Structure formats: structure tokens, C-alpha cells
Fold:
Amino acid sequence: MPQSVRKFLQPALYLFVLTFCSVGVVSAQQPTMKPAPIFGSSFTADNPFADISVTVAGVPNGAFKSALLAVFANDASITVFNDKIYIAYVDKETQGLNVVVAEPIPGQPNYTLKLFHQETAFKMTSSPTMSVYRGYLVIYFAAQAGTVPNGFFGVGFDGKKWLNMREVASF
Structure:
């Protein structure tokens, strides 16, 4: 897929997903007790588990003071840093790291999405996980990079600039 098409489709796809999740945010304001629908082709009578993961975070919201936002995807993580919502995920084409910023739209339950950061110097071998630690947004993941066949790496963001990727451990 050409890079220009990919750069257009990827944010559009995540906008669709967040819009879909925003509907859940609105309906979550009125709790109901019913099972969540299972989406995906991997659901069968023999295998009731969907081939997706879910990451949930308490986030700022334009229609409500705060809300729970869930990201339903493989290889993704969500967290809030400096009142902005960050979603990190494995780029399906490059196997590198992509980070999207989602910002609340005032007066609406929806968000605007913007591809914020990309790292392609490695091939991720695990889903990223994020945390806020000592004033940094920290993203950890397993990856193959350079002469390290399988290592545990981390990148950090201080709100203005990204810190270089560092190998935390090799295995």
C-alpha cells in the first residue's frame, strides 16, 4: 500500500474506532447489565474468545468531565499524559511503534485523532504498554533491533521531545 494512502487510511480507521468507542462512552453513562457483543471472525462455538485485546483508561471528555475509553484492538495501549490521550500500537505494515493523540472535542463525546509519533528502527514482537513515570510518558515493548534479536525496549516522552529508544533487557 502506498505511504500516502496508508497515512490517510490509518488515522481515518482510528477515528472510526474512537467514534465507535465514543458511542460506548455515552451509553456507559447509564449502566446496564448485559453482555458485550463479540466481534471478529475468530468467534466460533468451539472458541468463544475474540482475537482482540482491550485497554481501558479514564480520560478527559468534551461532553462529560471524564469518561472511560476502551481501545479494542490487537497490540494497542491507551493512557493519559498531561491531559492528552495517547494510544500506542504496533504498525501492521512496518511492525514499528505508532502513537496517536486523541483530544476531546468540546461539547461532544467524540475525539480528534492525530498520528503523533512513529518509530520504525525496530520490529516489535509484543504489544506496547504505557505508563506515566517521573514526568515522562513511558512506552515499553519487546522488539528486534540491530544486533539484539529479542530485547525489551522503552521510549519516553517528556511533553516536548521523545527520548531515544533504550534497551532495558535482552533475552
About this structure: The CA atoms of residues 70 and 84 lie 15 Å apart.
